[in-house]
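Re: the multi-chain job from yesterday

Posting the exact lines I submitted so nobody has to dig through the queue logs.
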Amino acid sequence: MTEAFLSIQHVRKAFGSTVVVQDFNLDVAPGEFISFLGPSGCGKTTMLRIVAGFEEPSAGRIVIGGKDVTNLKPNQRNIGMVFQAYALFPNLTVAQNIAFGLKVAGTPKAESDARVAEMLGIIKLPEFADRYPYQLSGGQQQRVALARALAARPKLLLLDEPLSALDAKVRLSLRDEIRQIQKKLGITTIFVTHDQEEALSMSDRIVVMHDGHAEQVGTPFEIYNRPATRFVANFVGTLNVLDGVVIDPIAATVRIGEREITLRNGALGAASAGDAVSLALRPEAIVLGRQPGRDASLSGQIADVSFLGSVIRVKVGVGQNAVSLDTFNNSSAQPPIVGDQTEISFSASDLLVLH
Amino acid sequence: MRTNRAVSWVLLALGCLYFVLPLIGMVEFSLRMRRGVYSLDAYWVVLADPKFQSTFAYSVVVGLLTIVVGIFIVVPTAYWVRLRLPGLRPYVEFVTLLPLVIPAIVVVFGYIRLYNTSSFLPLTGSATGTNILLVFGYVMLALPYMYRAVDTGLRTIDVRTLTEAAQILGAGWGTIIARIILPNVLLAVLSGAFLTFAIVIGEFTMAALLNRPAFGPYLQFIGANRAYEPAALAVIAFVITWACMAMIQIVSRFAPKTSSRSN
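And the result, structure tokens for all chains:
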């Protein structure tokens, strides 16, 4: 990794006796798009507000561009921020909103006007310069908020759940737009969200947060396919959890129900023979019936079948466990029938051992 | 049902008569200065009186100063209480309500005792000092109206997020209050300002006891010495008060629209 542009070092934040963020460490490379992902109350917004300067950390340091900004006020940090509630100034037009930061910084009017025009072009709203915020839709307001945050060419862009207040369709198009603009300008960005799909689709790296600390930091691929903890595995994507017993830790063999399955080498870590382990399997890694190339299989009974249009979700009871899997809807084939005995197969290497 | 409606209308008419009849009587009396015909003589006499002009001008200036000082005190206070000290809100509200329960005469005697010529701050020792004292006294009298108006205005905007949005864009506290908060609560401030003006223009107790040449004491002086002119003056004072109320209604039509359209 290149030298960190933003460095969050051992940050802790407590409100009275409640610890909201604990020993948070993160290095963000220049131009990187990082998402803080986690459920409500996990401390992701508090962490973002500490970076912005709205909250003072109880301990730790924030370094931006090699400069310790921990004790600087928000207006001294040269950061752009987009809020969930848009936060456009109702008394100012779109152009005046975008120019606000430039005016505060004393930018000459000609330069400010040119920058506003450039920003309006980037957000594709050049004809909306003279409108007031109340005359815009939610999506348009958030684009203006983004332009306002970027107009003063900040060193860092913070996005605090900017898509949460928008409807699904606008959210989808705006998230692509935000990512495109971020890539085009190459600005280091932190994006706070509780929506895993947003985080997975937009980020270079994701920080999954839980109870105030970073549970796992990794690329979307790593977070989804190699979750480091049970929490990450459960929070990101749908997951089937199977209970197993370690047979041979060196050979990485476990028993699930009546079958013995060999995992990839070292998957069991320091477990001993006879230990109970939780194994996770993504629905897309499982197929109904035996299939060539899948080296592991379990037998069970179909417990439930849900028709979802293009796919059919099948729930199979395997011993004490229930396993969900999706099969494509094939109009010429008979759908699975509840109560039928069946086999499910998968690659043992897709099994994740949850710690 | 029909009987109920009729009773309602009758009660409304009686209520209107109760309030309107004395006003009609006063207006009618103010027009009877010239014997046998209605005329505006009483109004011309009053308006031509140099004392009327000077006292009215004095009260207008004091009223405007009261509004300016009031805005400087109330807007930052209400803003800060909403932003950082929400727990103090009930106490601040209580303090702002005190002028409604403490009579002006008690306050003004307190002022005279505190700020007399032998005190640490002898404001009553000079005309300018007494004028300053009067302005601050009026700010205090108008506090319940001004604070409530501004606080209601602040309730309509997301104070915290707007403040943070301005801060992150580099703005300091002065810029935030002057360019973001004040313009967004301007109509509420104007409502408070018109109420303040209406209170100041006819106030008697403080101005009389501090011996200032204000419109209130002039009204009382004319009332005690003339026949038709006091009625004309009362009508003028009413018109000013009503004009202030009408202005509140007019400016509220231009309230900034803060709600967003849906997608």
